[in-house]
């Protein structure tokens, strides 16, 4: 049984490397999933969080930008070109690159001269994106690799493929940039092969494990290696309390449990993005401000509200209405606009680190006060490491 689910709820345990795009369920099961998603969204808590709290959170971020403009208090970071070591081409990895922000980011970085590895669960869709970008631009360098962030085996296989590619290049390619962009907004409760909630795994635990295993393979020297974690303004809604390993695996960070009879999808999504932000700042403290000889630049990027397929599991009528209202409020962006904050973070001067990019044009804002909690960040790091270590041990058995 998936953490946080009840005996009456539908839980899909993904115990193989099949991708969500290729995974089909019988019509009755699909209907049950759609019904559960509708029921979960229509719960008062989820409606309040998604309809009110999330809107206020993004407005607060824009208010910070307005304050900076009025009082000229903000710092704008210009994008700087990356010059590769002699005879080498810089490599970047973009997860969730088959559509939306990931696709727009991958295309822009390829135009900037990177060899871009597009990572995602459906390789056929990634190849379609590669061909589409090549038709638009000459002399771009791209490749597609399959990656399922809910599967430990898939993550380790992906890292091995990247390692083999770098070794085979004999120094002609250097891994300089990782963009952890992939994420989901699950409409129903289901668990991964490790027993963790699929949304906290896809949005946080998977990127955590991927990043940790890629660290030894980053280019050392100039330009400095960089990690960009794509987070969300929804992290501002998190009020964390006492956390243990079981709670984290379920996507809960509060000192009260998630509801047991229905899925708290809004809260789990907020928590997953908050954990990714804590991870960002802790990486910054350890590998940029710390004493480690390997120096790394780490950024958070918040695209804002973007019209993508992240809400594909939610009722289509509700999604259409949501986009309509957000369009009226002038808060909805297309993926090319949403990717601007990600690109600002990726291409900021190499000595910049630990910033939260939002709003495009090189602008940054402050994230929530709780996101700078060093004690909590270390605690989440330790718990995440424990969960991932046990998952790897199970994979080896």
TrEMBL record:
GO molecular function: oxidoreductase activity
InterPro entries, A to Z: NAD(P)-bd_dom_sf, SDR_fam
Keyword annotations of the record: Oxidoreductase
Keyword Oxidoreductase: yes
Gene3D superfamilies recorded: NAD(P)-binding Rossmann-like Domain (3.40.50.720)
Record carries keyword Oxidoreductase: yes
Pfam family, one: adh_short
Record-stated family: Belongs to the short-chain dehydrogenases/reductases (SDR) family.
PANTHER family: RETINOL DEHYDROGENASE, RETINOL DEHYDROGENASE 11
Annotated protein name in UniProt: Uncharacterized protein
Organism from which the protein derives: Marchantia polymorpha (Common liverwort)
């Amino acid at each position: 049984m998936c953490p946080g689910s009840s005996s009456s709820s539908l839980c899909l345990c993904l115990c193989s490397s099949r991708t969500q795009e290729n995974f089909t369920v019988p019509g009755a099961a699909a209907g049950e999933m759609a019904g559960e998603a509708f029921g979960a969204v229509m719960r008062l808590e989820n409606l309040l969080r998604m309809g009110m709290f999330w809107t206020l959170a993004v407005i607060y971020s824009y208010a910070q930008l307005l304050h900076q403009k009025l009082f000229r208090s903000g710092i704008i970071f210009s994008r700087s070109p990356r010059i590769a070591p002699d005879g080498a081409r810089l490599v970047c990895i973009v997860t969730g690159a088959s559509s939306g922000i990931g696709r727009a980011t991958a295309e822009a970085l390829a135009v900037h001269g990177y060899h871009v590895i597009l990572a995602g669960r459906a390789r056929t869709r990634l190849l379609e994106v590669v061909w589409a970008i090549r038709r638009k631009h000459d002399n771009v360098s791209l490749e597609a690799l399959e990656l399922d962030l809910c599967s430990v085996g898939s993550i380790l296989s992906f890292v091995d493929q990247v390692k083999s590619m770098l070794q085979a290049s004999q120094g002609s390619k250097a891994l300089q940039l990782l963009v952890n962009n992939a994420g989901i907004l699950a409409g129903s409760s289901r668990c991964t092969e490790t027993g963790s909630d699929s949304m906290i795994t896809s949005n946080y635990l998977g990127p955590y494990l991927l990043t940790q295993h890629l660290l030894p393979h980053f280019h050392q020297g100039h330009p400095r290696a960089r990690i960009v974690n794509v987070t969300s303004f929804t992290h501002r809604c998190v009020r964390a309390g006492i956390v243990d390993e079981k709670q984290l695996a379920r996507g809960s960070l509060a000192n009260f449990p998630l509801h047991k009879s229905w899925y708290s999808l809004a809260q789990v999504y907020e928590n997953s993005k908050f954990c990714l932000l804590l991870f960002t700042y802790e990486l910054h403290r350890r590998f940029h401000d710390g004493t480690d000889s390997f120096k790394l630049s780490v950024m958070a990027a918040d695209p804002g509200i973007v019209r993508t397929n992240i809400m594909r599991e939610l009722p289509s009528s509700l999604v259409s209405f949501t986009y309509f209202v957000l369009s009226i409020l002038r808060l909805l962006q297309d993926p090319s606009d949403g990717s601007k904050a990600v690109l600002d973070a990726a291409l900021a001067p190499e000595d910049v680190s630990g910033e939260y990019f939002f709003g495009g044009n090189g602008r940054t804002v402050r994230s929530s006060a709780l996101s700078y909690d060093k004690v909590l960040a270390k605690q989440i790091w330790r718990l995440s490491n424990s969960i991932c270590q046990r998952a790897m041990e199970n994979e080896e058995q």
